[in-house]
Design a protein that fits this description.
CATH topology of chain A: Rossmann fold
Strand order of the largest sheet of chain B: 1-4-8-5-9-10-13-14
Largest sheet of chain B: 8 strands, mixed
CATH class of chain A: Alpha Beta
Strand content of chain B: 5-15%
CATH architecture of the largest domain in chain B: 3-Layer(aba) Sandwich
Largest interface: A-B, 28 and 28 residues
Helix content of chain A: 25-40%
Shape of chain B: globular
Radius of gyration of chain B: 21 Å
Distance between the termini of chain B: 37 Å
CATH architecture of chain A: 3-Layer(aba) Sandwich
Distance between the termini of chain A: 26 Å
Oligomer: heterodimer
Number of strands of chain A: 7
Order of helices and strands of chain B: EEEEEEEEHEHEHHHEEHHHEHEH
Number of domains of chain A: 1
Helix content of chain B: 25-40%
CATH topology of the largest domain in chain B: Rossmann fold
Number of helices of chain A: 8
Radius of gyration of chain A: 16 Å
Largest sheet of chain A: 7 strands, mixed
Chain lengths: 201, 394
């Protein structure tokens, strides 16, 4: 699902990953992020995915892809068996995001998580003015067929991290639209489109 | 998440073509083969087939490893035959194991009964048939024998070693015994070791054979007899474990082949499944050797990939150098998907390159031999990339 991630997001992730380390990408999609991390940083990367079409694309491009449903748990991975776990635009589609976050921080020394910020003013405006569930570029599904079953904001996410004693090492707020990109550092929860968080225990 | 129904179909004819008419070849390996049991075969004969052509730098060869009842005739047709080799759906031009790009080798392994040295062959030391005297074998013995064929064919490194079930065990063993002699291992519907239930089914099969009065303690060939009934029964038991409950239900249900269950009728009743199993058992007992069956089921039972590595599969796979593709099937209860997950998890922990697919199928263990679009597409894409990386022309 890296197509939802901008160049800014990808370079942010690259900056937070050590060259040559072991990376596990949860919900790796077509594997394009892993390919990039392998090419740029020489990481040893594996991706978990359940969509047959995405798995097929990974096989065709030589990405290590493992068919596994994140909702069924990650108990098969030993504690601290990876340096970094990455999850791009998948957290909002999981049954129990908070439990998966715990598991990620058990398996990996560090985690990088990206998600669409539901607190963005466009989404807020869509719901409050139109009275309809937002259908935006980032969240381009109708309410009845969306894979995104949890809607949360940057503020919600940080509250969860505080509550579960998850350390936020770094954060990066991404916005492309105008005036979002000018204002995101002032009112991050209102103008961020995509949030990228670097986490540890 | 809703799964998409989009599939990447193969561009060149979805089902691919046939390798056409094939003939088996034979070679006598003159080099002594020291077996895991300590005994030595001074020479041994191997029957094999090849499909496609070896490229100039001999880098495009794929070894196909057969399972319990398999043989060298994996693809194509013998002159006059209507039925192709046992893995014809997966080997051929444009098929997952694409003979336009790869040189495919399949050999009947020693201990089996279709031409290569085994219990039905003559023991040169005694001048009579080996029978029950044939030495016990391990999967590694098959690998070492295949390695001798590899040298004979002047192949320095396999592009891939591929096998389902016991064939997958050989592919894994190759990766540990000769790590620099293969680029990829494709391990399908396999396991690092058998479960107690697997061994139990094998023992019932062996007991069925040994209980046949014509078995003569394994010396039936010398006595001019064949334990047909016992071997058929062994196969019938095995066959049940290769299918899934769902598939049997769909295919046969409670349908009757003859008779009637209505009260007041006294004709004998035969269910379709009875008829089918009996047919499969009888057909098998006409073509397979009872001693081979016992020998190879024991080989399966004894297999434990990590035995020499302190029973630690991660330590075992740390010795491998090749890349892996692991495939399982949802309804396979002989070698369940969990067994393939254990292989995959050990490979990940050992830092090896690995991809894993769990294919939805109601075909049970036999699924690895049968048509399945997703399985075909995945294997095709993986191997096309292998060919691309080797610089093999289309």
């Amino acid at each position: 699902m890296t197509d939802a991630l901008s160049t800014d997001g990808i370079s942010t992730i690259e900056n937070w990953i050590e060259p040559g380390c072991r990376v596990l990408d949860l919900g790796c999609g077509d594997g394009s992020l892993l390919i990039r991390l392998q090419q740029q940083l020489g990481v040893i990367g594996y991706g978990l995915e359940i969509d047959p079409d995405s798995i097929q694309r990974c096989l065709a491009s030589g990405v290590n892809v493992i068919e596994q449903d994140l909702n069924q748990g990650l108990v098969n991975f030993a504690s601290q068996s990876f340096d970094t776990l990455v999850m791009t635009h998948t957290l909002q589609a999981l049954r129990y995001p908070h439990l998966v976050l715990d598991e990620m921080l058990r398996i990996g020394n560090q985690c990088i998580v990206t998600f669409p910020n539901f607190g963005n003013w466009r989404t807020r405006g869509y719901l409050s003015l139109r009275g309809r569930m937002p259908v935006t570029k980032q969240l381009a599904y109708q309410w009845y067929d969306t894979p995104n079953i949890h809607f949360f904001t940057c503020a919600d996410f940080e509250a969860l991290c505080a509550q579960r004693h998850i350390k936020i090492l770094d954060r990066r707020f991404i916005a492309k639209g105008f005036p979002d990109r000018m204002l995101k550092s002032l009112w991050s929860n209102l103008f961020t489109e995509t949030a990228v968080y670097h986490l540890s225990r | 998440m809703p799964s998409t129904t989009v599939r990447h179909h193969r561009d060149s004819g979805k089902t691919g073509g046939s390798v056409g008419q094939v003939t088996a070849r034979e070679v006598v390996i003159e080099q002594p083969l020291e077996l895991a049991c300590g005994r030595v075969l001074p020479t041994h004969k191997l029957v094999y087939e090849t499909y496609g052509s070896l490229n100039a730098d001999h880098s495009n060869a794929i070894l196909i490893c057969h399972a319990l009842s398999g043989n060298h005739h994996a693809a194509g047709f013998y002159k006059g035959d209507k039925k192709p080799g046992w893995w014809d759906h997966y080997i051929g031009p444009g098929k997952p194991i694409d003979t336009r790009r790869f040189y495919v080798v399949c050999v009947s392994n020693i201990g089996s009964c279709v031409g290569s040295t085994g219990p039905t062959a003559i023991n040169p030391e005694t001048g009579s048939v080996w029978g029950a005297e044939f030495p016990p074998l391990r999967a590694r013995d098959w690998v070492e024998s295949q390695k001798m064929l590899m040298d004979y064919l002047q192949i320095d490194c396999w592009a891939a070693v591929i096998g389902g079930s016991l064939g997958g065990m050989q592919a894994m063993r190759w990766s540990l015994e000769h790590p620099d002699k293969l680029q990829h291992a494709v391990v399908i519907a396999s396991s690092m070791k058998l479960t107690a239930q697997n061994i139990a089914f094998n023992e019932i099969a062996r007991r069925a054979i040994k209980s046949d009065a014509d078995f003569c303690d394994g010396n039936y060939l010398a006595a001019g007899k064949v334990p047909r009934g016992g071997l058929a029964l062994a196969r019938m038991i095995g066959h049940i474990t290769y299918l899934s409950d769902e598939l049997m239900g769909q295919k046969f249900g409670r349908d009757l082949r003859s008779g009637d269950l209505i009260q007041g009728k006294a004709e004998p009743i035969e269910f379709q499944i009875e008829s089918y199993l009996n047919y499969q058992g009888d057909k098998f007992s006409d073509s397979f050797d009872a001693n081979s069956y016992i020998l190879i089921t024991k080989m399966l039972d004894y297999f434990d990939l990590a035995r020499e590595y302190n029973y630690d599969p991660v330590a075992a796979f740390a010795h491998a150098q090749c890349k892996f593709l692991v495939i399982s099937f949802s309804s396979d209860w002989r070698f369940a998907p969990q067994r393939s997950r254990e292989i995959t998890d050990a490979l990940i922990a050992a830092g090896r390159s690995v991809s894993y697919m769990q294919i939805d199928s109601d075909m049970g263990h036999d699924a690895f031999l049968l048509p399945n679009q997703r399985y075909e597409d995945g294997l095709y894409s993986y191997l096309q990339r292998v060919a691309d990386q080797l610089g093999v022309e289309q």
